[in-house]
Amino acid sequence: xxxxxxxxxxxxxxxxxxxxxxxxxxxxxxxxxxxxxxxxxxxxxxxxxxxxxxxxxxxxxxxxxxxxxxxxxxxxxxxxxxxxxxxxxxxxxxxxxxxxxxxxxxxxxxxxxxxxxxxxxxxxxxxxxxxxxxxxxxxxxxxxxxxxxxxxxxxxxxxxxxxxxxxxxxxxxxxxxxxxxxxxxxxxxxxxxxxxxxxxxxxxxxxxxxxxxxxxxxxxxxxxxxxxxxxxxxxxxxxxxxxx
Length: 244
Hints:
- It is built from 9 helices and 2 strands; from the N terminus they run ααααβαααβαα.
- It is mainly α and about 240 residues long.
- A two-stranded antiparallel sheet has the order 1-2.
């Protein structure tokens, strides 16, 4: 295969990763804001639809968490060239998330619904959380969300960019602002149905577990630099002041 063909394939993969990744995240944001769009209804009873939704969530958790582990990447890169792995992960995660969004079963059983000023407060919290999420993502200047940058650098014969430890913007307040803000977005819905409560609980627990797993990876990667950061800045909830 010629270099020209290889580069063309790499560019196509980068674009697919960007479109699928960006599209799935946009749909997920709308899901958090407005709830499920009920792509198809299986007509299940409440226990049945909750079981389906739990299975969909666990499927995404397993895909995302396993593929982020170093042992998986080491094995995968024996088959997938290293510059392609980030896009492979991005496409896989986007497809897994789309499976969740398409298959999610909506319940008509409402546990809680805020009205008036309280509803407006929930909506405001969501918008503020989205703005904070974008701020945190922007603070990760060299972070390659969907793997496209890594592939394009490869196409242009440029070495992959090393990811430094980011301690700026919201990362001065909390070590994992993206996870913290995701939790706020998850719980900022003014309408809590049975399926949404299941979603909120499962995804919150997973975020906490994923944060702890990521902490181990970061310590292994950055060593004492990250250990010192852990001492100064709280992990998930920005309550402790720096230096305390």
